[in-house]
Structure prediction request, 257 residues.
Amino acid sequence: MNWAIIDAGSYDYAADAWGYTYGAAAEWYQGPWTLRGGVFGISTLPNGTDLDTTFSQFQLDGEIERRYSLWNRTGKIAVTGFLTRAKLGTYQDAIALAQATGAPADIVAVRQYRSRSGLSMNLEQEVIDGLGVFGRAGFASGDVEPDSYTDIDRTVAAGLSLTGKRWGRPDDTLGFAAIANAITPIHAQFLDAGGLGILIGDGQLPHPGLEQIIETFYQFPIGAWKVMFDYQFVVNPAYNRDRGPVSIGSIRLHSEF
Prediction:
Protein backbone atom coordinates (compact mmCIF):
# COMPACT_ATOMS: atom_id res chain seq x y z
CA MET A 1 0.00 0.00 0.00
CA ASN A 2 2.91 2.36 0.66
CA TRP A 3 3.98 4.46 -2.32
CA ALA A 4 7.65 3.71 -1.67
CA ILE A 5 6.90 -0.02 -2.17
CA ILE A 6 4.50 0.22 -5.13
CA ASP A 7 7.42 1.77 -7.06
CA ALA A 8 10.86 2.96 -6.11
CA GLY A 9 9.86 6.05 -4.16
CA SER A 10 12.36 8.25 -5.96
CA TYR A 11 11.07 7.23 -9.42
CA ASP A 12 9.09 10.32 -10.41
CA TYR A 13 7.12 8.60 -13.16
CA ALA A 14 5.23 10.67 -15.72
CA ALA A 15 1.53 11.09 -14.88
CA ASP A 16 -1.20 13.54 -14.10
CA ALA A 17 -2.64 13.82 -10.59
CA TRP A 18 -4.78 10.72 -11.24
CA GLY A 19 -1.86 8.59 -12.46
CA TYR A 20 -2.64 8.68 -16.19
CA THR A 21 -0.61 9.85 -19.18
CA TYR A 22 -0.08 9.50 -22.93
CA GLY A 23 3.07 8.21 -24.52
CA ALA A 24 4.83 5.46 -26.39
CA ALA A 25 7.20 2.70 -25.34
CA ALA A 26 9.21 -0.07 -26.99
CA GLU A 27 10.87 -3.24 -25.70
CA TRP A 28 13.69 -5.34 -27.21
CA TYR A 29 14.26 -8.90 -25.98
CA GLN A 30 17.55 -10.68 -26.56
CA GLY A 31 17.96 -13.91 -24.57
CA PRO A 32 18.05 -13.04 -20.86
CA TRP A 33 18.25 -9.31 -21.58
CA THR A 34 15.48 -6.78 -22.14
CA LEU A 35 15.85 -3.13 -23.08
CA ARG A 36 12.93 -0.73 -22.66
CA GLY A 37 12.48 2.89 -23.60
CA GLY A 38 9.66 5.38 -23.79
CA VAL A 39 8.54 8.98 -23.89
CA PHE A 40 5.50 10.16 -21.96
CA GLY A 41 3.60 13.37 -21.42
CA ILE A 42 3.27 15.05 -18.05
CA SER A 43 0.81 17.53 -16.63
CA THR A 44 0.91 21.23 -17.46
CA LEU A 45 1.70 21.95 -13.80
CA PRO A 46 3.45 19.60 -11.36
CA ASN A 47 0.92 17.10 -10.00
CA GLY A 48 -1.79 18.81 -12.03
CA THR A 49 -4.91 17.28 -13.50
CA ASP A 50 -4.39 18.47 -17.10
CA LEU A 51 -1.83 16.74 -19.30
CA ASP A 52 0.40 18.78 -21.63
CA THR A 53 -0.87 17.37 -24.94
CA THR A 54 1.74 19.35 -26.91
CA PHE A 55 4.51 17.25 -25.30
CA SER A 56 6.53 20.43 -24.67
CA GLN A 57 6.80 18.97 -21.16
CA PHE A 58 7.67 15.30 -21.18
CA GLN A 59 9.63 12.46 -19.63
CA LEU A 60 12.11 10.02 -21.18
CA ASP A 61 12.38 6.61 -19.53
CA GLY A 62 14.84 3.80 -20.06
CA GLU A 63 15.36 0.41 -18.46
CA ILE A 64 17.73 -2.52 -18.82
CA GLU A 65 16.74 -5.87 -17.31
CA ARG A 66 18.75 -9.07 -16.87
CA ARG A 67 17.06 -12.36 -15.97
CA TYR A 68 19.11 -15.19 -14.48
CA SER A 69 19.01 -18.42 -12.50
CA LEU A 70 20.77 -18.77 -9.14
CA TRP A 71 20.90 -22.28 -7.67
CA ASN A 72 18.07 -23.20 -10.05
CA ARG A 73 15.95 -20.34 -8.72
CA THR A 74 14.80 -17.56 -11.02
CA GLY A 75 15.73 -13.95 -10.47
CA LYS A 76 16.16 -10.67 -12.28
CA ILE A 77 17.78 -7.29 -11.86
CA ALA A 78 16.66 -4.08 -13.52
CA VAL A 79 18.07 -0.56 -13.66
CA THR A 80 15.64 2.22 -14.55
CA GLY A 81 16.36 5.84 -15.35
CA PHE A 82 14.22 8.88 -16.12
CA LEU A 83 14.75 12.40 -17.40
CA THR A 84 11.95 14.94 -17.01
CA ARG A 85 11.85 18.20 -18.95
CA ALA A 86 9.29 20.55 -17.45
CA LYS A 87 8.60 23.82 -15.67
CA LEU A 88 9.99 23.02 -12.24
CA GLY A 89 11.37 25.02 -9.34
CA THR A 90 14.58 24.58 -7.37
CA TYR A 91 14.59 24.61 -3.59
CA GLN A 92 17.49 27.07 -3.46
CA ASP A 93 15.64 29.63 -5.57
CA ALA A 94 12.50 29.26 -3.42
CA ILE A 95 14.51 29.73 -0.22
CA ALA A 96 16.30 32.79 -1.62
CA LEU A 97 12.98 34.38 -2.60
CA ALA A 98 11.54 33.68 0.85
CA GLN A 99 14.54 35.33 2.52
CA ALA A 100 14.15 38.38 0.29
CA THR A 101 10.41 38.80 0.80
CA GLY A 102 9.90 37.41 4.31
CA ALA A 103 7.15 35.14 2.96
CA PRO A 104 7.08 31.33 3.13
CA ALA A 105 9.11 29.53 0.49
CA ASP A 106 7.00 29.25 -2.67
CA ILE A 107 8.22 26.78 -5.29
CA VAL A 108 5.53 27.92 -7.76
CA ALA A 109 7.05 31.41 -7.99
CA VAL A 110 10.46 30.13 -9.16
CA ARG A 111 9.47 27.53 -11.76
CA GLN A 112 11.43 27.52 -15.02
CA TYR A 113 11.90 25.02 -17.82
CA ARG A 114 14.60 22.63 -16.59
CA SER A 115 15.52 18.97 -16.14
CA ARG A 116 15.05 16.50 -13.31
CA SER A 117 16.49 13.00 -13.42
CA GLY A 118 16.78 9.85 -11.36
CA LEU A 119 18.05 6.29 -11.32
CA SER A 120 16.79 3.20 -9.51
CA MET A 121 17.67 -0.49 -9.21
CA ASN A 122 15.36 -3.42 -8.51
CA LEU A 123 16.42 -6.98 -7.62
CA GLU A 124 14.00 -9.93 -7.38
CA GLN A 125 14.95 -13.47 -6.37
CA GLU A 126 13.06 -16.70 -5.76
CA VAL A 127 14.47 -18.39 -2.65
CA ILE A 128 12.34 -21.52 -2.32
CA ASP A 129 8.99 -22.59 -3.76
CA GLY A 130 6.48 -19.90 -2.83
CA LEU A 131 9.02 -17.50 -1.28
CA GLY A 132 10.49 -14.54 -3.11
CA VAL A 133 12.53 -11.57 -1.92
CA PHE A 134 13.32 -8.18 -3.42
CA GLY A 135 15.70 -5.29 -2.86
CA ARG A 136 15.38 -1.80 -4.27
CA ALA A 137 17.29 1.48 -4.17
CA GLY A 138 16.93 4.78 -5.97
CA PHE A 139 17.80 8.46 -6.05
CA ALA A 140 16.62 11.55 -7.92
CA SER A 141 17.73 15.15 -8.35
CA GLY A 142 17.47 16.44 -4.82
CA ASP A 143 17.61 20.15 -5.66
CA VAL A 144 14.60 20.24 -8.02
CA GLU A 145 10.97 19.66 -7.03
CA PRO A 146 9.36 16.35 -8.11
CA ASP A 147 6.81 16.58 -10.88
CA SER A 148 4.34 13.73 -10.46
CA TYR A 149 4.92 11.15 -7.75
CA THR A 150 6.02 11.93 -4.22
CA ASP A 151 8.52 13.76 -2.00
CA ILE A 152 11.39 11.25 -1.91
CA ASP A 153 14.95 12.00 -3.05
CA ARG A 154 16.64 8.81 -1.80
CA THR A 155 15.13 5.42 -1.01
CA VAL A 156 16.17 1.90 -0.02
CA ALA A 157 13.69 -0.96 0.43
CA ALA A 158 13.66 -4.72 0.89
CA GLY A 159 10.93 -7.29 1.41
CA LEU A 160 9.51 -10.73 0.85
CA SER A 161 6.37 -12.49 -0.35
CA LEU A 162 5.35 -15.95 0.85
CA THR A 163 2.42 -18.03 -0.37
CA GLY A 164 0.29 -19.94 2.14
CA LYS A 165 1.07 -23.36 0.63
CA ARG A 166 3.15 -24.30 3.67
CA TRP A 167 0.14 -23.99 5.99
CA GLY A 168 -2.38 -25.50 3.61
CA ARG A 169 -3.66 -22.28 1.98
CA PRO A 170 -1.88 -22.00 -1.40
CA ASP A 171 -4.01 -19.03 -2.52
CA ASP A 172 -3.02 -16.90 0.49
CA THR A 173 -0.08 -14.48 0.46
CA LEU A 174 1.93 -13.04 3.33
CA GLY A 175 4.11 -10.02 2.63
CA PHE A 176 6.61 -7.90 4.53
CA ALA A 177 8.75 -4.90 3.57
CA ALA A 178 11.06 -2.36 5.21
CA ILE A 179 11.77 1.07 3.73
CA ALA A 180 14.08 4.00 4.46
CA ASN A 181 13.39 7.29 2.67
CA ALA A 182 15.38 10.53 2.72
CA ILE A 183 15.40 14.03 1.31
CA THR A 184 18.42 16.22 0.60
CA PRO A 185 19.50 18.94 3.08
CA ILE A 186 18.33 21.71 0.72
CA HIS A 187 14.94 19.98 0.40
CA ALA A 188 14.68 19.91 4.20
CA GLN A 189 15.58 23.62 4.39
CA PHE A 190 12.85 24.39 1.86
CA LEU A 191 10.23 22.60 3.97
CA ASP A 192 11.49 24.31 7.13
CA ALA A 193 11.11 27.67 5.35
CA GLY A 194 7.39 27.02 4.86
CA GLY A 195 7.58 25.21 1.53
CA LEU A 196 4.99 22.67 0.44
CA GLY A 197 5.67 19.48 -1.54
CA ILE A 198 3.36 17.19 -3.46
CA LEU A 199 2.24 15.38 -0.30
CA ILE A 200 4.11 16.89 2.65
CA GLY A 201 4.83 20.20 4.34
CA ASP A 202 3.31 21.90 7.37
CA GLY A 203 5.31 25.12 7.47
CA GLN A 204 8.37 23.98 9.37
CA LEU A 205 10.86 21.13 9.68
CA PRO A 206 13.38 22.07 12.39
CA HIS A 207 14.47 18.50 13.09
CA PRO A 208 14.56 16.47 9.86
CA GLY A 209 15.28 12.76 10.00
CA LEU A 210 15.22 9.57 8.00
CA GLU A 211 11.70 8.31 7.34
CA GLN A 212 11.56 4.61 8.27
CA ILE A 213 8.65 2.32 7.44
CA ILE A 214 7.75 -1.31 7.89
CA GLU A 215 4.71 -2.80 6.21
CA THR A 216 3.14 -6.23 6.40
CA PHE A 217 0.01 -7.69 4.81
CA TYR A 218 -1.97 -10.91 4.60
CA GLN A 219 -4.16 -11.58 1.56
CA PHE A 220 -6.68 -14.40 1.14
CA PRO A 221 -9.57 -15.22 -1.22
CA ILE A 222 -13.25 -15.23 -0.31
CA GLY A 223 -15.22 -16.45 -3.31
CA ALA A 224 -14.47 -14.14 -6.23
CA TRP A 225 -12.96 -11.56 -3.89
CA LYS A 226 -9.48 -11.09 -2.50
CA VAL A 227 -9.27 -9.58 0.97
CA MET A 228 -6.10 -8.02 2.33
CA PHE A 229 -5.32 -6.81 5.84
CA ASP A 230 -2.40 -4.39 5.90
CA TYR A 231 -0.40 -2.69 8.67
CA GLN A 232 2.23 0.04 8.43
CA PHE A 233 4.47 1.49 11.14
CA VAL A 234 6.11 4.81 10.26
CA VAL A 235 8.97 6.44 12.18
CA ASN A 236 9.66 10.14 11.49
CA PRO A 237 6.67 10.55 9.13
CA ALA A 238 7.37 13.11 6.39
CA TYR A 239 10.98 13.24 7.68
CA ASN A 240 9.89 14.98 10.89
CA ARG A 241 11.55 13.71 14.10
CA ASP A 242 9.05 15.78 16.10
CA ARG A 243 6.14 13.68 14.80
CA GLY A 244 5.08 10.06 15.14
CA PRO A 245 5.61 7.23 15.18
CA VAL A 246 2.39 6.44 13.31
CA SER A 247 0.49 3.18 12.91
CA ILE A 248 -1.70 2.75 9.82
CA GLY A 249 -4.15 -0.12 9.35
CA SER A 250 -5.90 -0.87 6.07
CA ILE A 251 -8.35 -3.32 4.54
CA ARG A 252 -8.32 -3.84 0.77
CA LEU A 253 -11.01 -5.65 -1.23
CA HIS A 254 -10.42 -6.71 -4.83
CA SER A 255 -12.73 -8.40 -7.32
CA GLU A 256 -12.82 -8.90 -11.08
CA PHE A 257 -15.96 -9.38 -13.15
In short: The longest strand covers residues 112-128. The helical segments are 3-6, 91-101, 185-192. The domain at 3-255 is CATH 2.40.160.10 (Porin). The chain has a mean pLDDT of 95.
